[in-house]
């Protein structure tokens, strides 16, 4: 890595990450049968990006969770309420509880890794992505997010490109592959 040119790298990465973040948020499956349809957040300067936590809904779901201690879907939905509001520290225990009941839920596992990343738990995020890929080695969103964490969390650009190239090989026409291609191009442009 050429340390005399960090600004182009970070500008490129942040532009690419913005695109990948949008793709990741927009493609998150809502797996709970009691989930409500939410509109994608609209960014307003000076305002939080995510929606505010609906405390009434949280109370309802907590009551359901208390009544059904083996229900992973309720815990998943609680995790996503906090995740979408960017309250990642509050999403983590709900995602962990959901995975304790349904350890093969790759989407929840991957989003738990993202929540770890946003709470500066980089190694835990990478470990969680490894668990996701152990369940489904072809999960494109996991590979896309793995590349992001490698690039931003570990400054491992080669490892990030490797993960993104896997995404492109798996499904070259997917939104994840397009985002991966864009990120690779930006990194290679910043570091010829």
What would a concise description of this structure say?
This protein has 9 helices and no strands.
Output the keywords:
single chain, 192 residues, mainly alpha, Serine Threonine Protein Phosphatase 5, Tetratricopeptide repeat, 9 helices, 0% strand, elongated
Give a structural overview.
- The chain is mainly α.
- It has a single domain, classed as Serine Threonine Protein Phosphatase 5, Tetratricopeptide repeat (Alpha Horseshoe), CATH 1.25.40.
- The chain contains 9 helices and no strands.
- Helix 6 runs antiparallel to helix 7 (140-154) and helix 7 runs parallel beside helix 9.
- The longest helix has 21 residues, at 6-26.
- Mean pLDDT is 83; it is low at 22-27 and 29-48.
Topology of helices and strands:
Layout: H1 6-26, H2 55-67, H3 72-84, H4 88-101, H5 106-118, H6 122-135, H7 140-154, H8 157-170, H9 175-190
Helix pairs in contact: 1-7, 1-9, 2-3, 3-4, 4-5, 5-6, 5-7, 6-7, 7-8, 7-9, 8-9
CATH homolog superfamily: Tetratricopeptide repeat domain
Strand content: under 5%
Task: State the distance separating the first and last CA atoms.
Answer: 10 Å
Biggest β-sheet description: none
Which overall shape is indicated by the principal axes computed on the Cα atoms?
elongated
> Radius of gyration, Cα only, in angstroms?
17 Å
The low-pLDDT segments are: 22-27, 29-48
Structural class given helices, strands, pairing? mainly alpha
What is the CATH domain class?
A: Mainly Alpha
Helix run count: 9
Kindly report the average pLDDT value.
Answer: 83
- CATH-derived topology: Serine Threonine Protein Phosphatase 5, Tetratricopeptide repeat
Count of domains = 1
Helix content: 55-70%
Strand tally is 0
CATH hierarchy: architecture: Alpha Horseshoe
Order of helices and strands: HHHHHHHHH
């Amino acid at each position: 890595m050429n340390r005399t040119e960090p600004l182009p790298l970070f500008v490129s990465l942040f532009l690419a990450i913005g695109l990948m973040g949008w793709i990741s948020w927009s493609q998150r499956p809502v797996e709970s049968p009691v989930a409500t349809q939410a509109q994608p957040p609209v960014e307003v300067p000076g305002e939080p990006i995510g929606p505010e936590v609906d405390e009434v809904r949280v109370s309802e779901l907590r009551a359901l969770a208390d009544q059904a201690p083996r229900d992973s879907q309720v815990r998943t939905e609680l995790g996503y309420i906090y995740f979408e509001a960017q309250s990642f520290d509050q999403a983590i225990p709900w995602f962990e509880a959901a995975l304790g009941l349904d350890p093969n839920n790759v989407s929840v596992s991957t989003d738990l890794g993202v929540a770890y990343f946003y709470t500066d738990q980089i190694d835990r995020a990478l470990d969680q992505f490894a668990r996701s890929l152990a369940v489904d080695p072809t999960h494109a969103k996991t590979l896309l997010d793995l590349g992001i964490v490698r690039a931003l969390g570990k400054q491992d650009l080669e490892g990030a490109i490797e993960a993104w190239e896997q995404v492109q090989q798996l499904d070259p026409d997917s939104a994840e592959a397009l985002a991966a291609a864009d990120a690779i191009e930006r990194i290679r442009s910043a570091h010829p």
